[in-house]
Write a structure and sequence with these properties.
Structural class: alpha/beta
Number of strands: 16
Helix content: 40-55%
CATH architecture of the largest domain: Alpha-Beta Barrel
Largest sheet: 8 strands, parallel
Radius of gyration: 20 Å
CATH class of the largest domain: Alpha Beta
Shape: globular
Strand content: 15-25%
Number of helices: 15
CATH superfamily of the largest domain: Queuine tRNA-ribosyltransferase-like
CATH topology of the largest domain: TIM Barrel
Length: 370
């Protein structure tokens, strides 16, 4: 699929840009945040709640869906949208590469692919660039990803160079077998903290030619300073007329900083993960509703938030649910956290429009980290 992406406005002060891309689901505004529905569900939430929270694109995971329920089951159901009844916008599947390298036991990386053991039952598995694309073709998301190696951090220059070369070869092989013309295929830029390798990876991936480009390996344990450099090393060599996606990054300040370095799309499991532990984002920093001080706090999680949780419930009630181990507490915080990030992206887009994103960032940081 030729993903129709249009840059509407570019900042005069940094690399941020307003844009939109068009799919059969309509127009999606960028920069944007994508909630993660690892196993064909954003944990504890239904599609209507995602829509109400401002979500558009939802990400699902190739590795997990390959193991359960299997890509053939999803295909028989009519694809991911039908299977999980998500009709609010596009879907994206990652390649499974990150999960193979982060979850799988006893990995053996070969030129043909990766041999490893299932994190579920220890069975022997093999995933190659061709297999990853074949699975994603069957899952039927609108945007799919090349299969790459996600190297550890830190890694030596020699290791990273060999890894980048392998990822490029895998990207070519994956593109060659991509058979679903309705799906956009994105290439992935790696290279770790090494500027020349990031540039090389970006330029060579662009030569292969993809519908969009992702920056990978920029959320694997490095400091924020290193992460921001890794992003900038990559984005300045990516084409202006293609979507740029920063994989696995969702900390609020990172969304602003990533946007200022030319990123259009972000994703992260954090908003629902921290919600399950009682945490909520607010403009004045993260809070934990399990804390005793909220026992008699009858104000919303965040004043002026328009999410379902804040419009209808108090900190005291949500704390009661969490302490009582009622799932509704986790659900309400998940709704709030996703809405917090989608509202943040709305504010980011407004400040790109007025070219005031740097002032917005400074004000946000002062309040969030005070």
């Amino acid at each position: 699929m030729d993903l129709q992406f249009k840059v509407l406005k570019k900042s005069n002060r940094n690399m941020s840009r307003l844009g939109e891309f068009t799919t059969k689901w309509g127009v999606s505004k960028t920069p944007m945040f994508m909630p993660v529905g690892t196993q064909a569900t954003v944990k504890t939430l239904n599609p209507e709640e995602l829509k109400d929270a401002g979500a558009n694109v939802v990400l699902s995971n190739t590795y997990h869906l390959w193991l359960r329920p299997g890509e053939d089951i999803v295909k028989k159901a009519g694809g991911l949208h039908q299977f999980m009844n998500y009709k609010n916008g596009p879907m994206l599947t990652d390649s499974g590469g990150f999960q193979v390298f982060s979850l799988a036991e006893k990995k053996n990386i070969k030129e043909e692919g990766v041999y490893f053991k299932s994190h579920i039952d220890g069975s022997n598995l093999f995933l190659s660039p061709e297999k990853s694309i074949e699975i994603q073709n069957k899952l039927g998301a609108d945007i799919i990803m090349s299969f790459d190696e996600c190297p550890p951090y830190p890694a030596t220059y020699e290791y990273m160079k060999n890894s980048v070369e392998r990822t490029l070869r895998w990207a070519k092989r994956g593109k060659e077998v991509h058979s679903n013309a309705e799906q956009a295929l994105f290439g992935i830029v790696q290279g770790g903290e090494f500027e020349d390798l990031r540039r090389y990876s970006a330029e060579e991936t662009v030569k292969i030619g993809f519908d969009g480009y992702s920056v990978g390996g920029a959320a694997v344990g490095e400091t924020k300073e290193v992460q921001y450099k890794e992003v900038e090393y990559a984005t300045k060599y990516l084409p202006e007329d293609k979507v740029r996606y920063l994989m696995g990054v969702g900390d609020p300040i990172d969304l602003i900083e990533g946007t200022m370095r030319g990123i259009d799309i972000f994703d992260c499991v954090a908003p629902t993960r921290i919600a399950r532990h009682g945490n909520a984002y607010t403009r004045n920093g993260k809070i934990n509703l399990r804390n005793q001080k909220y026992k008699e706090d009858f104000t919303p999680v965040e004043e002026n938030c328009d999410c379902y949780a804040c419009k209808n419930f108090t900190k005291a009630y949500i704390r009661h649910l969490l302490i009582s181990e009622e799932v509704l507490g986790q659900r309400l915080l998940s709704i709030h956290n996703i809405r917090f990030l989608t509202r943040l992206m709305e504010d980011i887009r407004e400040n790109i429009e007025t070219d005031t994103l740097e002032e917005f960032r400074d004000d946000f940081k002062e309040k969030y980290y005070k």
